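Pipeline run #58 for the internal structure catalog. This entry was flagged by the ingest filter as a single-chain record with no existing model, so it goes straight to prediction. Upstream metadata was stripped on purpose; only the residue string is passed forward. Reviewer on rotation: M.T. Logging verbosity set to normal.
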Amino acid sequence: MSAATVQARAGTGSSVTWASAETNVAFCLADVVTGTSNPIPIPTTTGTNFSWIKNLVLYVTTAGTTSMSNRTVNVASSLSTGLAFHWKDVAVASYAQAASGNRPATSGSNGNVPTGYTAMTTSPAQYDNTSVSTSSTGPCGDMCVCVLGVSGNFAGGAGNAVSLQNISLNYDES
């Protein structure tokens, strides 16, 4: 068996384009992978504002003779108070371009988990256990659609270049 070469990628555009998400992903109010424009505003009172969605996949760049399964997601370490990542499993065929209309609604409470999402923790959580062959290039399995929540109790201050902890997409290959 030969292992596949796999890369984390993020999808953007009305007809999805997959770009490397291995060095930086901008959680903001724009359909971009990187950049510092359109930051998420910190609520001036109690509440949580969310980023636009980020469509993340495990992408086979060099085909193998194996299968991939047990896809998990986690954050490397806890985020600052008032910041939280959230995720949900979505089929690649259901890709939706990031836009203001499909981001989670602003919440009236700090630390709210948006409907349909799961709070991301430092422990790997399975988002897709489907066994998919790595014999062709492209997305291998479902997307892990992520958003960042910024709550009114975030003390880090306003800005468009707040560093966040790494998100890990993991998998088993056999």
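catalog note: The longest strand covers residues 54-62.
catalog note: Residues 5-156 form one domain.
status: ready for reviewer M.T.
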